[in-house]
């Protein structure tokens, strides 16, 4: 495998993992751009995903958000608290189980939908740029396969 890739020279230690090195760089830049675009909306990374889920699902238990966003309880609790403080979500006891908390989008949260959809569109446009449409389907297939591989590796019992 060549050490040169585009304008980047692979470090010697990455020669045995060029795909992982490329993914690391791409994901870092994508997260950075998403962070900038979200900051313009007054949000932090991940908060838009929580709102998107609420828009699609309606009120959900906080434990569902933990599972859907593949995060831990403390992170989701802080995220919900920040969104609640900003007036974008509200929490209420679950009428079916008073021990559980339901989280729902407020009218202010709902009003963010168009801006978040625009931000997501801008992020996508910056990400794919002028890639031809004939490249996008194979790219999506390859990324789906990579996700399956990584999910299997993470789920291995020796990783727990």
Automatic annotation (TrEMBL):
Pfam families registered for this protein in UniProt: MarR (PF01047)
InterPro entries reported in the protein's UniProt record: HTH_MarR-typ, Tscrpt_reg_MarR-type_CS, WH-like_DNA-bd_sf, WH_DNA-bd_sf
Highest taxon of source: Bacteria
Single GO molecular function: DNA-binding transcription factor activity
Keyword presence, DNA-binding: yes
HTH marR-type domain location: 16-148
SUPFAM superfamilies in UniProt: Winged helix' DNA-binding domain
UniProt keyword list: DNA-binding, Transcription, Transcription regulation
The keyword Disulfide bond appears for this protein: no
Name under which the protein is recorded: MarR family winged helix-turn-helix transcriptional regulator
Organism: Umezawaea endophytica
Organism taxonomic ancestry: Bacteria, Bacillati, Actinomycetota, Actinomycetes, Pseudonocardiales
């Amino acid at each position: 495998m060549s050490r040169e890739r585009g304008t980047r020279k692979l470090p010697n230690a990455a020669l045995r993992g060029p795909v992982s090195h490329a993914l690391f760089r791409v994901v870092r830049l994508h997260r950075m751009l998403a962070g900038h675009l979200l900051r313009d909306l007054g949000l932090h990374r991940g908060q838009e995903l929580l709102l998107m889920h609420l828009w699609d699902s309606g009120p959900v238990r906080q434990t569902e958000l933990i599972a859907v966003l593949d995060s831990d309880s403390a992170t989701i609790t802080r995220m919900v608290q920040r969104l609640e403080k900003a007036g974008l979500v509200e929490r209420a006891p679950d009428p079916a189980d008073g021990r559980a908390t339901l989280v729902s989008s407020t009218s202010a949260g709902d009003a963010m939908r168009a801006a978040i959809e625009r931000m997501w569109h801008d992020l996508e446009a910056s990400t794919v740029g002028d890639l031809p449409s004939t490249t996008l389907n194979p790219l999506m297939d390859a990324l789906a396969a990579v996700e399956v591989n990584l999910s299997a590796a993470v789920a291995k019992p020796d990783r727990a």
